């Protein structure tokens, strides 16, 4: 099994007024072990870090604090729709605002994760899922019984 490679290209723009250079965007390119390549340009106003760009190209959602047109702050999960590209060759960015039908805590409870049974560990788990990429958790196996008392 091969490894994944991530490359970043930084894009700067020179100001016509004062001759200074300004960071404008970066292109993130992920090359998967099978040779498949995914790339996306992220702009400064999107406030996406290199680590978040990697997670987005891996089709993982990222939890962000965003601002609407009026400048009001809100939290949302964002994810690239890697199934299609727009007319600029970019993957559309999907948003799932907090309180808009997705409840992280309920979803984690449905997975029977052992850390959800302890209050402190549950809080840490929920906050860590919002801060960084998912990491391994201890999942309890569900057993299905078909009327017999035999294990």
Condensed summary:
The chain is of the alpha+beta class and 151 residues long. It has helices at residues 50-57, 104-109, 119-131; strands spanning 5-14, 21-31, 37-43, 62-67, 73-80, 93-97.
Characterize the structure shown.
This protein is an alpha+beta fold. It folds into two domains: 5-102, no CATH class; 103-141, no CATH class. It contains three helices and six strands, in the order βββαβββαα. It has helices spanning 50-57, 104-109, 119-131, and strands spanning 5-14, 21-31, 37-43, 62-67, 73-80, 93-97. Strands 1-2-3 form a three-stranded antiparallel sheet, with helices on one face. The chain has a three-stranded antiparallel sheet with strand order 4-5-6. The longest helix is centred in the C-terminal third of the chain and has 13 residues, at 119-131. The radius of gyration is 20 Å and the shape is globular.
Give the SSE layout.
Blueprint: E1 5-14, E2 21-31, E3 37-43, H1 50-57, E4 62-67, E5 73-80, E6 93-97, H2 104-109, H3 119-131
Antiparallel strand pairs: 1-2, 2-3, 4-5, 5-6
Question: Keywords, please?
Answer:
2 domains; alpha+beta; 3-stranded antiparallel β-sheet; 151 residues; 31% strand; 3 helices
The parts where pLDDT drops under 50 for at least 5 residues are 135-151
Q: Which value, in Å, is the CA radius of gyration?
A: 20 Å
Main sheet record: 3 strands, antiparallel
Helix content: 10-25%
Spatial strand sequence of the major β-sheet:
1-2-3
Mean pLDDT: 79
Termini gap: 37 Å
Structural class: alpha+beta
The general outline is globular
Compute the number of strand runs: 6
The total domain count is 2
User: How many helical stretches?
Assistant: 3
Q: What order do the helices and strands follow? A: EEEHEEEHH
Give the strand content. Answer: 25-35%
């Amino acid at each position: 099994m091969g490894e994944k490679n991530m490359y970043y290209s930084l894009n700067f723009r020179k100001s016509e007024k004062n001759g200074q250079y300004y960071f404008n965007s970066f292109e993130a390119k992920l090359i998967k072990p099978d040779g498949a390549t995914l790339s996306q340009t992220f702009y400064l106003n999107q406030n996406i870090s290199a680590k978040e760009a990697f997670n987005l190209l891996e089709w993982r959602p990222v939890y962000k604090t965003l601002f609407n047109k009026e400048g009001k702050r809100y939290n949302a999960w964002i994810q690239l729709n890697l199934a299609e590209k727009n007319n600029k060759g970019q993957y559309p960015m999907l948003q799932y605002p907090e309180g808009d039908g997705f409840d992280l805590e309920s979803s984690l409870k449905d997975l029977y994760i052992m850390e959800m049974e302890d209050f402190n560990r549950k809080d840490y788990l929920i906050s860590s899922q919002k801060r960084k990429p998912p990491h391994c958790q201890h999942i309890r196996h569900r057993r299905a019984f078909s009327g017999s008392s035999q294990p």
